[in-house]
Amino acid sequence: MSTDAQLAIGLDIGGTKIAGGVIDRSGRVHAELQAPTPPRSGAVVIAVILLDLVSRLRAGRDIAAIGVGAAGIVRWPEGRMLWAPNNAYRDWAIRDELERETGLPAVVDNDANVAGYAEASLGATTYRQMLFITVGTGIGGGLVLDGEIYRGPTGMGAELGHMIVDPLGPRCGCGNHGCLEAVASGSALTRMGREAAAANPDGLIARIGRAEGVVTGQTVTSAAQQDDPTALDIFTRLGRWLGIGIASLATIFELEAVVIGGGVIRTGDLLLSPVRAAAGEFAYAAEPRGVPPVLPATFGSEAGMIGAGLLALEHADRKPGAA
Ligand SMILES: [Zn+2]
After folding, report:
1. 151-201: per-residue pLDDT in tens?
2. DSSP 59-70
3. How close is the Cα of 303 to the center of ligand 1, in Å?
4. To the nearest whole percent, how much of the chain has pLDDT over 70?
5. If we measure between CA atoms, which residue out of 135, 133, 76 comes closest to residue 110?
6. Which of 11, 166, 171, 266 is most buried, with most CB under 10 Å away?
7. Domains detected in the chain
């Protein structure tokens, strides 16, 4: 029997909820708990929630390690949260605090990194060279190269959502112009829907928006599902930008696959068809090199929690003295 660590607690700190689960090496979730993320909460509040989830999930189980995936900028391997989009913490030594309070080894990484790691390591097909993109309110990215998460020297690398694809494009939340996130995220879908509704107040997007009170990305999705040409055109433009970004990354990294997760992937082929078309159209030397398949994510909203647990188990093995 292996003495390797068998169970870890994976935690995913998102903008609206914190999910925690007991995870084994196959990615199976043995138990799961959730807590809402208090808006703009700081380190003290979040630490209390994390430690409560850990102690409840740990009860009666032999837990070897803790892994955290968190939205924001995480310094690796120290596990310091430098900044987060939804929370008030700045430069929080979250890994040290978890290790001190629980006595367990911990790892802390960016949420898209660990979600991508779960998709690459535990999906129906496994990949050693894979790009993961989450298309939600923003765009997150995880890059798995040679079977490992690529983070750059200190965890600042692979910020794929802020790759510039259109320097003349709209302003991004980060202050730059034409980032992938500014043209291909759920927020971009909402913005383009509102522009279309303003330009054509009698169109289907505007009419659905009036009935619902406001135009959102979901309004555009509903209109597209009713074959509204304006809404379909918005998905074509959004997917095209995503495909352009993917084509460049595939050219650089020789990807085996591209996996897309996040809320907007629930629109299925509305998003995937134009992405695949542009990824092929802008591929470099597609004939000899091939074009990687663009696939929907396997794990949905649990990917971050599962990937964080898996990463924790693998790092527990590497630490001397770990059980
Ligand atoms: Zn940006």
Report:
1. 999 999 999 999 999 999 999 999 999 999 999 999 999 999 999 999 999
2. TTS---EEEEEE
3. 24
4. 97
5. 76
6. 11
7. 8-111+301-318 (3.30.420.40), 125-297 (3.30.420.40)
